[in-house]
Write a structure and sequence with these properties.
The chain has about 650 residues and is of the alpha/beta class. The protein is about 25% helix and about 30% strand. The strands form ten sheets. Strands 29, 30, 31, 32, 33, 34, 35, 36, 37 and 38 form a ten-stranded mixed beta sheet that branches. The longest helix is centred in the middle third of the chain and has 19 residues.
Length: about 650
Amino acid sequence: MKRNVYLDLKTLEDARAIFLKRWEGRKTLPEIIDVDHSLGRITAEPVFARFSAPSYHAAAMDGIAVRAEDTFGATEKNPKRLRINKDALWINTGHAMPGGYNAVIMVEKLHQSDDETLEINSPAYPWQNVRKVGEDIVATQLLLPQNHRIRPYDMGALITAGILRIPVRRRPVVTIIPTGTELLNHSAISDIDILQEGQIIESNSVTLSGLVMESHGIPIVHEIIPDNVESIRNELIKASESDSDMIIINAGSSAGSKDYTAGIIAELGRVHVHGVAMMPGKPTILGEINDKPVIGNPGYTVSAVLSFEQFVKPILHSMQEIRLSKRNTINVYPSRNIPSKLGTEEFLRVNIGSVAGRMVATPLPRAAGSVTTLTRAEGIIRIPALSEGITQEEEVEAELLVDDAELKNTIVIIGSHDITLDILSDEIRKGGQDIRVSSGNVGSLGGLMAIKKGICHLGGAHLLDEETGEYNLSYIRKYLKGIRVSLFYLVMRDQGLIVGKGNPKNIKGINDLLRDDISFVNRQAGSGTRILLDYKLKQSGYTPAQIKGYDHEEYTHMAVAVDVLSGAADCGMGIYAAAKALNIDFIPMVREQYDLIIPSEHLENPNIKVLIKTIGSDSFKKRVTALGGYDPSKSGELWVELG
């Protein structure tokens, strides 16, 4: 089969118009179910009451049943006496009213003279404290209209009215077909200790199943299909001839040589769209086989989720007559400039926090396979296709993925990356505090600039002054002049060279970075690690141009370690904890000081107080020590105040 190419890339708006219109009016057929199991289902027809409620005149209070006319004229000065079992009958709430009696006097308003006589000092009026027949529900009245989503109290009303079974929209069945020769079923990993090279745990089907169930559908996940034409064709034929209402085939939707899906869908049915100008999610295929919608979902998780939200979810809701609710939005300012590719609409996941009354959005990694951006995101910024990006000064709209009240309890940290910040976030939550930590990794200098612009609560930095050997002070005096800040120790940590397991290239120090057979991975400009490297090069009389890979940049220590582990580089500058986490080797060079720089105006913020208390706790220090390469003995201590 020929290699696929994007012959007709559609805008997101056009792709949605083409595909969603094709299935407009397609509804699932009704089915009759027990009311007990109807929660969340959609009524397929109007529902009318069989019985009235109540079905008899009933006492609404504990007290006595009376004939109202017998009580007329009673006052405090001239009370009336009623004889039990003749003028009045004792009655409890919910009991049927005796024949000829038309009112109830509450027990609290009675005075019992003796065993046979009661005294009242105010009259009753007809039907006082009585629930009349049909007061709540009248037989034959409309209880629920069609296309109504059933709530718990609707279920109670249906039972009260004698309705035990109701017609509802059948939940659409969605067949999910994962494809890929490299995929490993997650149920098999319990029996293995390590993944073989080239193996990937297939998780998208679990994510997609959850999304289908959230959309009130029924997912049916097939076994993983290898990347060959015959297997994929057979599985699509089988799914299209089944009772499924929709088919999602995951992966195999791009333009790669093994991506057969579009061709097979075209052969068996029709391809409406192959390629959508959105990021992530560009390779999406929108087609049909046997009059059923077929979505070729990209293999990267974030792409797969976005493709589902834009094309699958609207159809599943429409099939069941469920209104597709819009997410709440909020205006935010990006924590840094965000460039974007012209001609492609981008969906950027962000963390959001309130800093000095301004909502600040910190971008999360943009990789389509970065599943953690889905778990960590608090909002989504949509960058239009005709925009080349947004700036720090630009107020933009973000769709909220969390309750907006949660944003007020988000601490925004911008600056140098450190693994202990993740532990800090978890320790705060473990303590029962409903506080989120949003960490933007832009380097130590980037953190100082964020403090200067007032777009974060604090910054993390480890900037070495080459002349004094001190950390951070000279940089703060230079870049944060006039801003009062407090420096708290976070950790002392080991910086050095991260190398492969067993140090296969026999790297011993800075001198080896100049070798022709050594490829290097660097941290980004402005990071403390980059400044330390430049200092060490200068000490040794070397220049950056002499190092192969000096311009190969990563934004975190873990990303550097991953590059070394994967073979993308032989060596990189980073912290020991990152090397240890990936079980590769480390050559120590220096023990450096990493500080949290907090503008003094935020010190009275209750959330910041919790943060400072947490980093000084024994629990935090114990977990940091276990990472290796850290000394948290001074964690949480105030070092110095400046400004």
